[in-house]
Amino acid sequence: MFKTAVIGDSASVSGFAALGLSVFCETEPERIAKLISRLAASDFAVIYITEPAAALVSDTINKYRSSRLPSIVLIPAIDGNTGDGMRAVHEAVEKAVGSDILN
């Protein structure tokens, strides 16, 4: 059975534990990169990561962009939205469909 993880600062991700998701409070780039690699090698099909945390490890995330699993989804942090998550969704849709149908 596949699992879902959430990575980011404590204030932004701790509430996801109530939904039964595996929560990882992490803000150090090296530790986040290692964590993503470890989760990808395990039974994690979806990894939600806050936009600020994702910005710290963009190279690691890009390694998995063309992989079937895990799906890495950027979410806003408690401090707000940088727009990186929506940009990633637009890029994925454009790649899949051939044009940006969300605009």
Gap between N and C termini:
36 Å
Specify the CATH class: Alpha Beta
Number of helices: 5
Number of self-contained structural domains: 1
Mean pLDDT: 89
Helix and strand sequence:
EHEHEHHEH
Largest sheet: 4 strands, parallel
Oligomerization status of the protein chains: single chain
Describe this structure in words.
This protein is an alpha/beta fold. The chain has one domain (3-97): 3-Layer(aba) Sandwich (Rossmann fold), CATH 3.40.50.10580. Helix content is 42%, strand content 21%. It has 5 helices and 4 strands; from the N terminus they run E-H-E-H-E-H-H-E-H. A 4-stranded parallel beta sheet has the order 2-1-3-4. The chain is globular and about 35 Å long. The relative contact order is 0.18. The mean pLDDT is 89.
Which key features would you list for this structure?
103 residues; alpha/beta; 5 helices
How does the SSE layout of this entry go?
Blueprint: E1 3-8, H1 10-13, E2 22-25, H2 29-41, E3 44-50, H3 51-56, H4 58-63, E4 71-75, H5 84-97
Parallel strand pairs: 1-2, 1-3, 3-4
Task: Summarize this entry quickly.
The chain has 103 residues and is α/β, with parallel strands linked by helices. The protein is 42% helix and 21% strand.
